[in-house]
Design goal:
Blueprint lengths: L18 E5 H18 L2 E2 L9 H9 L5 E3 L2 H9 L4 E4 L6 H10 L4 E6 L2 H14 L3 E6 L14 H9 L4 E7 L11 H24 L7 E3 L5 H5 L6 E2 L9 H4 L14 E10 L4 E3 L14 E2 L4 E6 L4 E5 L14 E5 L3 H5 L4 E6 L1 H4 L1 E7 L8
Parallel strand pairs: 1-16, 2-9, 3-4, 4-5, 5-6, 6-7, 7-8, 8-9
Antiparallel strand pairs: 1-10, 10-11, 10-15, 11-14, 12-15, 13-14, 16-17
Helix pairs in contact: 3-4, 4-5, 6-7
Length: 375
């Protein structure tokens, strides 16, 4: 871990670039707005911490009313548990026996749950839990349109029955997340995709109860679709994660009617290191931000981010704008990441700013606790 790019109390100009910045005022408003939405709609909130990988942010979410957090990886769960998070759901399959031994050991220290979608996964999980003397909540994952992990709804009942046959495993319900629906741009498209997901989740729940197993919960949803899952009468828990930061890709979605309004809260602060007659080059390239979901947005300027290499980002005036819009050599520029999750994983620290991006100061520096936790 490299030294932090700023210290508490620093002015914005003292932050070493490139740096990952959290606007604390916007972050706190985002957290409270989602928590208030969940309360108003009578559903549980379990935000996805793969977005932020931060125990500090997880604790803020739980203080606002979240029941716990989700992660995708065993090592993420371990890192956040080590940092004090006590209720974690690994909303993903784990079948490697060495990793399942770690899962079972962690379940002795915190409240832990995990997803399964195979008989092999359940058998190995049961063996690991028995060896560790621990107890674990288990969700059967159903494919509700993502075409990735999960079983067909008709198979959910047999897997649920298999879970309850093992001592140490508690059947907790169904994992039903439709990831590819999150970035359908039009609200009507997202609504239609989730309507189909709800029908599949309902069929899976019926298969579970027909197998003689109670189904306590259907969990899923993301920052692009949670309004529809909350209104479904089927989902009882929301797993939205990116709302805390609102990256450029989610901001490009057409707003969902009656949904809370979230704000950009995550930025990469960089500075101009070279200037041409019609472009500027900043010191934030592919090692400082992810571009898998498209380019970054230049905050507050009539500029486009037009290209990135390892250590460089190129800015050009937006179409119809003058080259006068280009920042000067050495001037600071704020970038909104296209995809927050992998951008966070490139940094060791969040520099947390209070008071806005023009006149704020550094209030805290938080570690990215689960940075690099990919196993």
């Amino acid at each position: 871990m490299r030294p932090a790019p700023a210290r508490t109390g620093d002015a914005l100009g003292a932050i070493e670039t490139p740096a990952l910045i959290v606007d604390l005022d916007a972050l706190e408003r985002n957290i409270e707005r989602m928590a208030a939405f969940a309360r108003a709609h009578g559903v549980r909130l379990r935000p996805h911490a793969k977005t932020h990988k931060s125990a500090h942010i997880a604790r803020l979410q739980m203080a606002a009313g979240a029941v716990g957090i989700c992660v995708q990886k065993t090592s993420e769960a371990e890192a956040l548990a080590q940092a004090g998070v006590s209720d974690i759901y690994i909303s993903n399959e784990v079948v490697a026996e060495d990793r399942l031994a770690r899962v079972a050991a962690l379940a002795r220290r915190i409240r832990l749950s995990i997803a399964v979608d195979s008989t092999l996964g359940i058998d190995r999980l049961a063996q690991a839990v028995k060896a560790a003397g621990s107890t674990l909540d288990v969700f059967v994952e159903v494919d509700v349109g993502q075409g990735r992990c999960g079983v067909a709804p008709t198979r959910a009942g047999s897997l649920a029955r298999m879970v309850v046959s093992h001592a140490g495993l508690r059947f907790a319900g169904l994992q039903a997340y439709h990831g590819s629906a999150q970035h359908l741009r039009r609200s009507e498209e997202r609504e239609a995709a989730i309507r189909h997901a709800v029908s599949l989740a309902s069929a899976a729940r019926a298969a579970v109860t027909s197998a003689g197993v109670a189904c306590p919960l259907v969990t899923g949803a993301g920052s692009g679709s949670y309004v529809f899952e909350a209104a479904s009468g089927v989902y009882g828990e929301l797993q939205a994660g990116s709302y805390v930061f609102l990256d450029r890709d989610y901001a490009d979605n057409q707003p969902t009617p009656h949904a809370p309004v979230f704000e950009h809260a995550l930025f990469v602060r960089c500075q101009v290191m070279s200037r041409g007659s019609a472009h500027a080059v900043v010191d934030a390239g592919l090692k400082a931000h992810a571009v898998d979901s498209g380019p970054l947005r230049v905050w507050g300027r009539e500029l486009d981010f037009t290209g990135a290499s390892d250590e460089h980002g190129v800015l050009r005036p937006r179409e119809g704008s003058s080259t006068d819009a280009l920042p000067a050599l050495g001037e600071a520029v704020w970038l909104v990441p296209g995809h927050c999750d992998p951008t966070v994983n490139l940094h060791d620290h969040f520099v947390c700013v209070r008071g806005g991006l023009e006149h704020g100061r550094v209030e805290a520096v938080w570690p990215v606790d689960a940075r690099g936790c990919v196993g």
